[in-house]
């Protein structure tokens, strides 16, 4: 009888040792905090992109007037200067320059940037909400392959995010399908 | 004794020669290699175009191409992968049924040494398929959303018909659209329902929604099949003139309806581009290339009454 008890104790001890080594007790709030910290945050990603990573791309900007002239004289060269994300006919550029406002529309400003031509060549978007992925595409800083899911790479601009209207640089994307109209202007956001 | 040793040496040498020979077995010539084209469904004409383009390009590159229709069923799709692995196919051009549910099949193919290239629909894993060639759905729907806001004058009631809920494209399209439209308080979504990318189901869902919300101004649909279904329901209800319909795909009937002024706009995907790229990548992989981008977004272009002359079904006019 005593021998049986001895066997039970040994078996129970062995079970406790095996189970004990495979179990871990932790506070639930700590575990949740850890999960939150490791989760991808689109807002933080966008903030870091805007505040830090984008700044590095703003040191080498193309001149807006020169690019506009190139569009009119050598489209192949102009296209070569732009960036595309994946396979696309839309080319995006990071630009800087000065222009004269020729008209103010609801969604933005018409600008003339080429000194020898008073006609506006650029439409600077300044509507109540500026959407699009021009900065993502023009900077060349985002590699979609690094994202687990396709939609994680699409941080959309929120109302409380910085507005490029206040910056001295603009991003231009050119393509006749943007906005669905035939406007021969270069769309800046 | 010496004879015995010599015999052993010969036997061992033969064994080594055979083993090394098996390890270096050359793959069959390309004309004999098979590529599997696995498509989520062939009930939708858009996927038929994807299938035809993938098969044709694989054959042009010198492979025998076989088509497998998953009929929107992950179980059927998994059975196809069993057949493909057992049939010693060289590569798979794959249009998945489910972003999560299809991962296991692709992993099994990978384990069997068969590379998979996703077309149009992604799987939610970045290290299983060799490459995923996908429409930039989010950006395409940003453009559609901007046009939607303009056409509606920033105010009105609208309905959204979603595609298959397990498909990442459904979410990407809806998120892209809402990333624009939700910034305009005058635009109110009165109903949002799934119609599984299906024309008949979209018609039924739309008929039901119209009973509860007869005063809508627009319908945004996650694909063109649903746009056509919704449009038919509006015609039946006599509301097709007052409600604008927006689709996504660039399918034949919707392109025709945009040209006729009956549907407002769609997002043009390029299934032939995606299929040809996938076939090209598969060929390059089989020739030894390994440095493929995991995700290759293909731009989606807005098609509306303003630029319809530049487009044809599933692509540009040029």
Distance between the termini of chain A: 86 Å
How is the biggest beta sheet of chain A arranged? 7 strands, mixed
Backbone CA Rg of chain A? 28 Å
Low-confidence stretches of chain A: 153-184
Report how far apart the termini of chain B are: 81 Å
What is the gyration radius of chain B calculated from CA atoms?
24 Å
From the spread of the alpha carbons, the general shape of chain A counts as rod-shaped
Structural class, judged by helices and strands of chain A?
alpha/beta
If you average the pLDDT of chain B, what whole number results?
A: 91
Strand neighbour order, sheet with most strands of chain A: 1-2-6-7-5-4-3
Give the largest interface: A-B, 32 and 44 residues
* Overall pLDDT level of chain A: 75
Beta content of chain A:
15-25%
Total strand segments of chain A? 7
Listing every helix as H and every strand as E from the N terminus to the C terminus, the arrangement of chain A reads: HHHEHHEEEEHEE
Beta-sheet strand percentage of chain B? 15-25%
Listing every helix as H and every strand as E from the N terminus to the C terminus, the arrangement of chain B reads HEHEHEHEEHEHEHEHEHEHEEEE
């Amino acid at each position: 009888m005593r021998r049986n008890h001895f066997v039970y104790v040994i078996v129970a001890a062995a079970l406790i040792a095996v189970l004990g080594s495979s179990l871990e007790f932790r506070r639930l709030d700590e575990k949740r905090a850890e999960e939150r910290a490791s989760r991808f945050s689109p807002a933080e990603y966008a903030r870091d992109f805007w505040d830090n990573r984008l700044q590095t791309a703003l040191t080498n900007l193309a001149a807006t007037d020169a690019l506009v002239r190139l569009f009119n004289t050598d489209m192949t060269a102009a296209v070569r200067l732009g960036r595309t994300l994946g396979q696309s006919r839309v080319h995006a550029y990071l630009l800087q320059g000065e222009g004269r406002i020729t008209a103010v529309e609801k969604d933005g400003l018409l600008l003339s940037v080429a000194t020898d031509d008073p006609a506006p060549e650029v439409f600077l978007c300044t509507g109540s909400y500026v959407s699009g992925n021009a900065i993502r595409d023009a900077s060349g800083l985002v590699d979609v392959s690094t994202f687990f899911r396709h939609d994680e790479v699409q941080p959309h601009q929120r109302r409380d995010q910085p507005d490029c209207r206040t910056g001295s640089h603009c991003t231009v994307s050119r393509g006749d399908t943007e906005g669905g109209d035939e406007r021969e202007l270069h769309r800046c956001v | 004794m010496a004879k015995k040793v010599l015999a052993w040496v010969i036997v061992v040498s033969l064994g080594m020669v055979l083993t090394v020979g098996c390890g270096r077995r050359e793959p069959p010539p390309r004309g004999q290699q098979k590529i599997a084209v696995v498509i989520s469904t062939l009930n939708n004409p858009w996927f038929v175009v994807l299938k035809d383009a993938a098969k044709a390009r694989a054959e042009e590159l010198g492979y025998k191409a076989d088509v497998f229709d998953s009929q929107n069923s992950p179980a059927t799709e998994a059975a196809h992968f069993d057949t493909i692995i057992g049939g010693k196919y060289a590569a798979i051009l794959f249009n998945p049924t489910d972003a999560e549910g299809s991962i296991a099949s692709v992993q099994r193919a990978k384990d069997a040494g068969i590379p998979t290239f996703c077309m149009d629909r992604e799987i939610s894993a970045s290290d299983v398929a060799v490459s995923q060639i996908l429409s930039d759905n989010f950006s395409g729907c940003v453009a559609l959303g901007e046009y939607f806001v303009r056409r509606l004058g920033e105010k009105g009631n609208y309905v959204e018909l979603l595609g298959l809920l397990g498909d990442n494209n459904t979410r990407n399209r809806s998120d892209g659209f809402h990333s624009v439209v939700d910034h305009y308080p005058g635009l109110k979504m009165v109903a949002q329902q799934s119609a599984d990318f299906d024309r008949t189901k979209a018609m039924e869902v739309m008929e039901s929604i119209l009973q509860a919300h007869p005063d809508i101004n627009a319908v945004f649909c996650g694909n063109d099949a649903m746009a056509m279904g919704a449009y038919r329901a509006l015609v039946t209800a006599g509301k097709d003139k007052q409600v604008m319909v927006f689709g996504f795909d660039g399918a034949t009937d919707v392109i025709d309806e945009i040209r006729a002024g009956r549907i407002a706009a769609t997002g043009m995907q390029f299934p032939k581009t995606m299929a040809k790229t996938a076939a090209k990548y598969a060929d390059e992989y089989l020739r030894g290339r390994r440095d493929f981008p995991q995700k290759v977004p293909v731009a989606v272009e807005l098609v509306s009454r303003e630029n319809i002359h530049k487009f044809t079904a599933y692509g540009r006019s040029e």
